[in-house]
Amino acid sequence: MNTATVINAELDKHWYVVYTKPRWEKKVAELLTIAGFENYCPLDKVTRQWSDREKIVLEPFFKSYVFVRVNENQKWKVPDVPGIISYVYWLGKPAIVPTAEIEQIKLFLNTHDKVFVKALNISAGHKIKITAGAFRNMQGVVVALKGKQVQVEIPSLNIALIAMSANNVEMVSSI
How many CB atoms lie under 10 A from the CB of residue 172? Predict the structure, then answer.
């Protein structure tokens, strides 16, 4: 196999997310490695208290999820690994995670301690701050939600933004 073929094979690989049996994340990552699949199971250091001692343990950051990087030919062999239930799907296809996002997760977890995932449960009437885009740092009120799209009223500009991604807002308070 020549160098160009190896480079093309690496470029054809994408990161996917697999859904695992509960509490199987580290075991699935180990089995994927044994099977020859590149994978990433983000782990966080957590202090656990037992009756006789305190211990720092590594726990999966995303419960029941492991990232796997494979090409199209390998993609359908991955679910055969014990402990994997299925791929996580988006629009009817296995969801592809950009490499840059995987690198951001790695950098974030290597930089920060005591990290946790918190769902953002916003609804109409909540005051939010926009975290990305042209209106970054502007505050507004959620008027309506449709899926992951948010309609936000920004009183200071006397406008309403339609179809803003819920990923680009953070809750300030509820009204």
Answer: 13
